[in-house]
User: Fold these one by one.
Assistant:
Number 1:
Amino acid sequence: MNDELFKKIYSPEEFEKNSLILLKQIKAHIQNTTSGKALKTLHWNEPEKELDFWKSFLENGENEDFFPEVIKRTTHTHHPKYVGHQVSAPAPITLLTAFASALLNNGMAVYEMGMAPSAIEKVVTDEICKKIGYESGFGGLLTSGGTLANLTALLSARKAKISNDIWNEGYSDPLGVMVCEQAHYCIDRAAKIMGLGEKGIIKVPAQDNFSMDTSVLEESYQNAITAGIKIFAIVGSAPSTATGAYDDLMTISKFAKEKGLWFHVDGAHGGAAIYSNKYEHLLNGISTSDSVVIDGHKMMLMPTITTALLFKNKIHAELTFSQRADYLLNDIEEDDWINSGKKTFECTKTMMCMHWYILFKLYGQEVFNQFVTRQYDLAKDFEKYLTENANFEMATSPMSNIVCFRFKEENYSNNQLNQINKNIRQELLEEGEFYLVQTKLNEKIFLRTSLMNPFTTSEHLNLLIAKIKKKGLEQLEFIKH
Ligand SMILES: Cc1ncc(COP(=O)(O)O)c(C=O)c1O
């Protein structure tokens, strides 16, 4: 046997040498991005060219160039001109928790494979439950993303509300879930994974501001009942993804209570507003929900991927994946927090709880009050600058830090304006100074920004407006000739 290879791979000296080099690169990256000194948020490359680069790098690249190339060839969420998708600029301390998790590699399926993280996860989820306003008997878990957490919540809902033992015996009757048509597609996907089919997703229409039109809840419910569907859950978005509109959770909660439905809140993006003294009112009613999802990697300054799934009654967390039938629900009283793997989709997961815990410990929950409030306030300022300018149209007034708008000009058709806005976004992508995305709402293409970075200021946003306007006017000239 030759152990020399493994001695080299696990050499502490080699590790120290490599990590000190990377730490310097990370430090420079944080400095250059957060200060806005770096000129670009991304260096755009066509997909095929990027693929060729990495194919060739495997054979010919210098080892020491690996990390610098990866850093250069990714989109920089720490740059204040990053206003793109809903992922955070992780607080640097959470790079270290990610690093420690990778080293220790305790998968947490059972207590002895993660004593500290199992306990830490309970402390963290209990803290969040209290902040939601759950009073006693609550509990939760951390899992790999909002998509998985929403699916888990709906499985819990089905177990709690449907008396047939579907887990063991399969479906007999058609079942359904109610959700606003603007909800994130993962709810739709979860329902499909659960075998509910298209007819099992009862899409409640949205109002003009893209939040659920609760005035048609009864009608949507009755239509589904008439079609023979047994509805077991209703989902409120807090907020929905495209426009950041919060559903009226209080009204949904009353409706759920009246009909005996499970009330789930998808707060993957904006559930973090429970920490904001100024904006927590957007979540009025959340304390009456049966379950809530909040992503750490969106509005809570953590790296991908970590999501909290919280239950008003922890029994449901224990039973989602258990073989026990729902009529036994109330028999379970013990708190089985030490066996995390029983409650989650994952058997093995990362020690993601450390990100939450270290932020709570070092900076206190106040950091989320300040962060959410700052970003939501900034969105209101951005709206003001946009509406002062005749060349811009808002999709709706922002309720969170997601702002959708488009360049417009009188006497141009919707098709023309759609093309102009698509071209603007493509040019911005290729230039790489700012990063933003686009979305289609009621057949109109809008530019979509999520103000995720704590260093983005009004100055950056006014610069972006000026850039878009210039590009828009150039496009108009181009069309004229
Ligand atoms: C409202 C909402 N729910 C769920 C998700 C999915 O979360 P994740 O990307 O963590 O799976 C998203 C993602 O953007 C979202 O905005």
Number 2:
Amino acid sequence: MAKDMHTQEWDSATLTKLDVFEQYVHDWFNITSSYGQNEKFNALEIYDLFCGSGYDGTGKYKGSPLRILDAILKRNLKGKTIKLYFNDNNEEKIKTLKEIINNEYKILSDRKDIKIKYTSVDTDVYTLYSQKYFKLVFLDQYGIKHIHKAQEFLTKGTDILIFIASSYIKRFLEEKTFKKYLDVNSISKRDFENKSNYETHRIITQYFKTIFKNHFIAPFSLTKDNGNTNGLIFISTHRKGQEQFLKTAWKIDENFGEGNKNIDRDFTKDETSLFYEPNEPSEKERRYAELLKEFLKEQRSNIEIKYFSLDNGFLSRHTNKILNSLKNHLECEYCNNAKRGFHLDRDEVKVKVRLK
Ligand SMILES: C[S@@+](CC[C@H](N)C(=O)[O-])C[C@H]1O[C@@H](n2cnc3c(N)ncnc32)[C@H](O)[C@@H]1O
């Protein structure tokens, strides 16, 4: 059985996980709070359904619920109401969290625009309070038991950030207790053959892409000091969500946009290596450039190229750089009054590109 993380000092992988979450909460507010004032958008909801008691065991580091509050209190809510749902099946933890918030966030008693609902139930039986509004759901679970809840919660306008114990899936995949939570036709031991531990979460993300076929997905790997790799998976019903999460991931991991470790052991991005070349493209970018060239053997619109970029974990700025370097080998057919450029941030077809 996993140790109770709220009685211990958190390791750096856990802190990075929370940093990604907190940064994403900021970025999510930037997008969702800018939608117009109407009944559908006048409230925003965040569900933290494995929320814990507020701090780590040393009292030094804040957990997800307090980080959500810090992110909210720093900003102008532009007239919107924020509804927060904090749940943990451990009643003591919810009690402690409530006390901390009452003592350390007294300002909330004057804020009618921030509402908190505390519950202590098994997330397995939790249902979301509304079908309206933009929602962010954080499922920071230890195991894999609650993957199906992500499927249940994913309605229009919902973004889910779920922590997956990928290293456990890799280890216990063949065991009966695990098999019942997985689609064993879509993942097997063979998927991990000849792959390093660091790549574990990438493989699990591939599995998620097969079971959430109609959704938009992006990963963030979290490797512990012992090499075990778990991670976050972002799942959204819309492209903009996926793009926003990738922007967050690239802010936290400037080299690869994907994790707290150099997953491919790429020496060009290792400051302690003789081969360190900060301005050179990474191994990951080089592989992506080859995939992109292959993709462009058929004519593709600016929109298709952008989606290809996001599905491969890259932002428009990365893809633009590659397209510019290939400029003389591309055939561009412009439409809708466009004349030059690749228009990866436009929602209408402006150019169709093919590798000559
Ligand atoms: C990994 S911790 C979450 C940490 C939290 N995000 C933080 O930053 O402090 C998982 C939490 O889920 C709670 N938990 C475990 N199983 C649960 C379940 N089935 N339903 C609801 N909460 C559960 C545990 O008590 C624990 O506090």
Number 3:
Amino acid sequence: MNRQEKQVLTDRKFEIENLSDLNHQFEYQSPDDLLLWGAEHFGNTIVLGTGFGPSGVVLIHKITKLQLPIKIFCLDTNLLFKETYSLWDKIEDRFDIRIESVSPILTLEGQAKRHKEELWKTDPDKCCYLRKVLPLQKYLSNKKAWITGLRRSQSEMRKDVGKIEWDPGNKVYKLNPLATWTQEEVWEYIEKNDLPYNPLHDEGYPSIGCIPCTEPSTDQSERSGRWKNLEKTECGIHLPSLKNKLK
Ligand code: SF4
């Protein structure tokens, strides 16, 4: 990183001086208030990232309803379920929007050749890094903020997520408008607004990611079924900011 790039980064990090005041302010405000503030503050440099989970669907609905000029993207690992791709199409049609696909540099064949066949079996962290973390870093490198569907009730790891955070991994701000929502509130909203959702949820999948690392689960936890039998609970795109919270 050259000196000019370092300065841009420093300016960006301290663009919001009163992060903790803002968090107090937004703690009891609605997700709509935070989305409106984000769009006003960051203009066309804020984006929404979604994997089409229930929280993402809620946020897409809110953004389109409020007519905010926030672009939406999905990290497409090329390993998503056909049900996820068809939900993607359905959402684009229903809201008359286009959701950008952010892809890894390596195709699956390229990854197998350069690293290992079915890398997710032997080194899932590296696989997530190549197919999710790196593409996201690249995509966000010319943005100032991104919006996520992270919620505190999703897992122990996520229990402290703030409404607005500095994301040290991607060097942008991160807005979590649904941080205080429960799973019940999300599903109530989906039902009330008759929103589409991934049908795999009705087949026992609490959380849905890539095919090789997602299984049905009877566990009550919202993230169960991902990387079953491994200690891993996060793909890595949120880890730097989550770990930052633990400090
Ligand atoms: S979730 Fe699994 S398949 Fe998807 S990128 Fe991570 S390790 Fe690879």
Number 4:
Amino acid sequence: MTTIANLKAVLGSFFHTPTYGAFELLEHALVELDDAGTICRITRAGDADFEQRVAAARAAGAAEPGAYLELGANEVALPGFVDLHVHAPQWPQAGVALDEPLNVWLDERTFPLEARFADAEFAYAVGHDLARTFLSRGTTTVLYFASAHLDGSFAVSRACADAGQRAIVGKVVMDDPAANHDFYRDATPDQALADTETFLDRVAALDAARRADDPRFAGAFGAVTPRFIPSCTDEALAGLGEIARTRDAYIQSHCNEGEWEHSVAIERFGKTDAEALASFGLLGPKSIMAHCTFMSEGDTRLFAETGTVVAHCPISNAYFANSACPVRRMHEAGVHIGLGTDISGGFSPSMYDNIRQAVMASRMLEEGVDALVDATRRGAGYPARISAPEALYLATKGGAEALGLPTGSFEVGRAFDAQIIDTRRAFADLTGFGIFNEPADRLARILYLATPDNIRQVWCQGKLVIERA
Ligand SMILES: [Zn+2]
């Protein structure tokens, strides 16, 4: 695909959440980019040199088409989203069989589908379609589980790089013959560890080659990826912890997802899932754990102390987690949290849908859901609700901070990852008849009502990767 990559300045209005708990509107601001697609200067209307810098940016745009972008009166920019939990091979079954219990859904649907990534061409096709779909919904950075196959997993990394998306991908390890089907698992623990190292080397080489070619390459990273404790031998878990430590690599897995996963670790190790992961060296500031609904107070402390990140997957949790995630309680305890779609335990590739569900699930957790239970005992018994701007933070800067990547907000030093929202799209008008013009109301209308049609353009690392007619 062609990408426009000489953008130097954008004039318009920008919503973002530089800190948790509040949003900021940069109204009529000039955002300037360096050669690497990183924001190098922000000038706001009213600043002494504003008019002069805008004039210079316009002149540069006249001399070099594509260097200057001016948003329309009904347009506003939001940061590109960061999705912290996705299973790339499950994309073809998004929305399918969600009425099944987790073990049936995995054994009868998911594992046979993931096994098809033995065909690397198929893996590339699915990965590329998924990356483009995410980009079209405004998601510019994604942390992916690929499959248990070395070549199929690497095909996902290539597909994301070709689509212009910043991607962290893991070759999944699931080596325990007693816990996995023979048609879909690592042959041995040694093979699983060797393939993980080869995979990390290949992704690092891909990243280096693309960066050498393109100063605005958004980045390809590898992650050590034990599927979850129930599918791995002790030997593989310990080996993966060691690989992550020696390479300072990202780690991703599932932790305390539901009643079943929670109970497996306790029966096998006499410890919680979180404690067991820690004992294998799998928790730390570059560890991202999906779900984390069944967190004891000790588990939450362990996450805060080690800097481990929670990938909150609110839609998926409604189907498979047997509970709602106490996001606010964990945030207040000092745990880093971002948002994930969990394709395809979660059906929607849209972070907007997940922002909405994160807010709704938090309110149901706080107030309870069964009217036959007395109101004093119905809810969680502690403040649990989060606001839409707080959920936006999780979906943008929260996820970026969790990954240690400079994106997720419009600040100097951050990559220019942006979605340009057209608030006056036919059949998707977000302007509210001009009645609700306060910034908080304008942002609320976007977060709750935006459709993919409203996303006119998507930029990743200063490159145009999606443009709707
Ligand atoms: Zn998952």
